[in-house]
Amino acid sequence: MAIRKTRYHTTSRVVAQTLETYDREVRLFLTRWGKRRYKRPALLVDWLALLPPRAVLLDLGCGGGQDARYLKAAGYCVIGLDCTLPLLRFGKTRAPSVPLVLADMRSLPVRSGSLGGIWAAASLMHLPKPAAFQVLRELHRLAGSGGLLAATLTYGTRSRILERGWIPGRYFARWRKTELTSALRRAGWEIVTLKVVTNQERKGRWLNLLARRPPVESIRRGRVDDKI
Question: What does the pLDDT look like over 193-204, one tens digit per residue?
Fold first, then answer.
């Protein structure tokens, strides 16, 4: 199956710079994240325990497709989406049966209410916070009733372009628990768990998130209760 392409935009300077950096450093990125040996992230295990069998899943910012490949093998209907074409091409060599889409997460080519779950590992962090909030709202629209979002974001207070270290030139938004909690609730998500972890799949401090789109019945019940 060929990689499918949809329109995307790079209107934000820091996002454009981040995408250019991934395009330029794709070989270096794959030395760490393109290995054949695969270890399931702890958050992914927790997320899968809450999902129904054969759910429709979106791997948002799938990179080289290592998680999408595992999810497909586990029996889920998974779509991988990324904005870096060389990474998607690599992913197709490893998992040719997984549908991969070249698209910007700020303009998602997905039908409303069609997703049972969204896996966003180290992807939303590359957006400035106002843009990330808009994506969280859009993901809420795309998730079906009770749909589950799992995401990892960088923890802290200083959002900036990385100037040194591994693959400099990328933008990282750092979130506090309180501000991410507020953003999620305003976007309509119900938090299942939100915790700070250190040096798990990636170095440093991270926020590991599980959130649910409230079932339609509970939303309706809340509206009725408000009127009583």
Answer: 999 999 998 999
C-alpha–C-alpha distance, residues 81 and 155, integer Å:
24
Q: Does the predicted model carry a pTM greater than 0.70?
A: yes
Rg, the chain, Cα only: 17
Task: Kindly tell me the burial class for residue 15, based on how many C-beta atoms sit within 10 Å of its own C-beta (0-12, 13-18, 19 or more).
Answer: buried
Q: Which residues pair with 43 in a beta bridge?
A: none
Domains defined for the chain, CATH in brackets:
4-32+39-227 (3.40.50.150)
Q: Return the structure tokens found at 216.
A: 């339609």
- Report the DSSP beta bridge partners of residue 5: 102
